[in-house]
Amino acid sequence: MRGKSHPSVVRRFGIGLAALALVATACSSNDAETQSSSSAEPEVDDAAQLAITPADGTEALAPNTPIQVTAEGGTITEVKVDQVVPAEAGAEGGEAEDPSLYEMTGSLNEDGTLWVSDWNLRPGAEVVVTATAENAEGETSELVHEFTTEEAVPGQRLELLSNFPSSGQTVGVGMPIVVNFDLPVTNKAEVENSMEVISEQGIQGAWNWPSDTMAVFRPETYWEPYQSVQVDMHLAGVEASEGVYGVKNYQLDFEIGRELIMTMHVPDHEMVVTVDGEHERTIPVSNGKGSRNFDTTTTGVHVLMERYESLTMDSTTVGIPEDSPGAYNVDVQYAVRTTNSGEFLHEASYNGNIGTANTSNGCTNLDMVNARWVFENTLMGDILDTTGTSRELEWHNGWGYWQMSWDEWLANSATGEAHVTDGSGTPGPVHGAQ
């Protein structure tokens, strides 16, 4: 494999001029020959000169190495990067991946003389970089480099375990983007910068890390309703921690639906629902009795999570053993989770105090009709904003991410910079130290 410059247009001009020079030698004086020969040389010398790094023929290159193309005497007009992972180095027994997930984009400087790849390379890939440039006369040059990248070691391949929401879902305006990895991430800034969020209506947002295996994106304010959001996770080749590389790219597409907000001041025994700013429904409720921290309904901005048409509420799942004070085991219908510590909106036909007193174990109890309405008319990502109790919702309890102010959320991200969702890119580099 060798990198060669191919100034094709220049070469054609060179051949034609050389032929004219031979004719002049046979029919004219020596002066004519000298003039014809000298006129050909500047055309060849004016060709744009291209250079590519990594070097042609490099083997087992670190996947997080950037590709750089430079041009002298002209401007870069195109850079094409082909990445092929042989079957034996690819996913084991999986479906063929969408090649469009691995199309390499790059950033070109203002004068068109430097191009740098935006993303990392696939591990275990055969890579071909084809660059073209053009000089002031419109003559083109081409340079090709071929090299291979290092394979990701089994047991050290970062992959996606799960994500919320899923592609195709419609969610509420408070929905975070939650990404769960199979291995811990220590190079968090590089991973954050490898995941680009693009929405129809651009907004500032940032990633945070509730744990080393979970990344969460939250906008500065609630999403604007009725728009599409896309998440391009360029994880292939990113070095998540020492020697651990991402092996796949992923794309997530979802919709933001109408704006549904529920507000509840616990002493009032009611929940008010608005849709797109208009009053929709007032629902009588019974909240936590508040005799201890456990049975106190949390104050704060809750994001609706998973839902069950029927569910057994069992105190042993939240650390209260059977037969101990406060233990319970009851079957309910139309349950919608609001925290990881056990709070739900749910039907509680057994509670005769709905609308008049707070007597639950911390959940928000509703009658059958209203519980079914909430179950059928709310979305994952809708907001329940609760006030009036002594127990504050922790930011990492469920999806309580709106409990942090925007300044706190941004400062707690690995990059410390806002990610604007208008398609302009992520805040920083994804490549390793060079």
From TrEMBL:
Molecular function, one GO term: peptidoglycan L,D-transpeptidase activity
Alphabetical keyword list: Acyltransferase, Cell shape, Cell wall biogenesis/degradation, Lipoprotein, Peptidoglycan synthesis, Signal, Transferase
GO BP terms in the entry: cell wall organization; peptidoglycan-protein cross-linking; regulation of cell shape
Keyword Amino-acid biosynthesis attached: no
SUPFAM superfamilies: L,D-transpeptidase catalytic domain-like
Pfam family, one: Big_10
Pathway entry: Cell wall biogenesis; peptidoglycan biosynthesis
Residues forming the catalytic site: 346 (proton donor/acceptor), 363 (nucleophile)
GO cellular component, one term: extracellular region
Region forming the signal peptide: 1-32
Domain L,D-TPase catalytic: 260-387
Name of protein: Lipoprotein-anchoring transpeptidase ErfK/SrfK
